[in-house]
Amino acid sequence: MSILDRILKPRAAVETPAPPRSRLIVEDWAAMTTEQQQDYFNANGFLVIPDAVPQPLVLKIVSALEAKEGEIDELTEDFWKADSIFELVGNEKVTATLEHLFETPVKFFKAAYTRVKPVAESKMRPGRQVLHMDYGGGEEIGDYRNSCACWVNVAYHLTTLTEHHAPFWVVPGSHRRFNSVPTTNLDYMFDQAKMLLVNAGDALIFHCFVAHCGDANTSDSTRHSFFFSHRPVWARHAGIVKEWPAEIVENVPEPRRQVMLDLNRGLPL
């Protein structure tokens, strides 16, 4: 099976029941106007930007990740060792959409890479994650990056999400449920969760308050995803955060590197 086939058409390795159609999110993302995108995001807390990453770049990045797999640990910034990752920063389609959603410039302040291996190869317990929100989690003491009043994750999925290939579950509108507590198990909402499937190269934007989770990978290939965190410029962090290292910034060409600069900037009083 070629690498392109593994990216575009992951095959089921373990048969699992398909969710009823009523639990699938089916939208014509490409047909949405910018106003419809904003309305959808405001109502639901997430949005898909189709074909945000061109297929040749998807193939280039996945090939680089697989070539350096032993050097790159999940949820670290080791992934910059794969030089092609720099081409994701400041993605024009995504940045333009974010700036329209927030009606303000945005800052890119954090990044993480996750690989979800097939259940047969994984050391993790098979099954989906619990529903959770991203706000307030995964921080060491003194790390204020996730403390913004408003931020989103941009998930660049580099393999097609199918019902077998670690699909994404989300509770539409849950970003407006202010009784939800960060860093807690939100599975009490799972009966309202819907499965969202995207194609390789699509970007999934979701708000930090949205209840979501990833499901098990019962396919025969690894899911590769990047999560790039962005905030509207007004939503300054609660404390000082470290700027991106110069050796990373200098690998991103102008004008795309602007989203990485002046991370502690807010709006003037």
Provide an overview of this structure.
With 269 residues, this protein is of the alpha+beta class. The chain has a single domain (48-260), classed as Jelly Rolls. Helices cover 17% and strands 17% of the residues. The chain has helices spanning 3-8, 34-44, 55-67, 92-102, 246-249, and strands at residues 46-49, 106-116, 152-157, 168-170, 194-196, 203-207, 212-214, 223-232. The strands form 2 sheets. The protein has a 5-stranded antiparallel beta sheet with strand order 1-6-3-8-2. The longest helix is centred in the N-terminal third of the chain and has 13 residues, at 55-67. The protein is globular, with a radius of gyration of 18 Å. The model has no long low-confidence stretch (mean pLDDT 92).
Summarize this entry quickly.
The protein has 269 residues and is an alpha+beta fold.
Portion in strands? 15-25%
Uncertain stretches of 5 or more adjacent residues: none
How much helix, percentage-wise, in residues? 10-25%
Number of domains: 1
* Order of neighbouring strands in the sheet with most strands: 1-6-3-8-2
Through-space gap between termini: 57 Å
How many helix segments? 5
Largest sheet: 5 strands, antiparallel
The helix-and-strand class reads alpha+beta
Mean pLDDT: 92
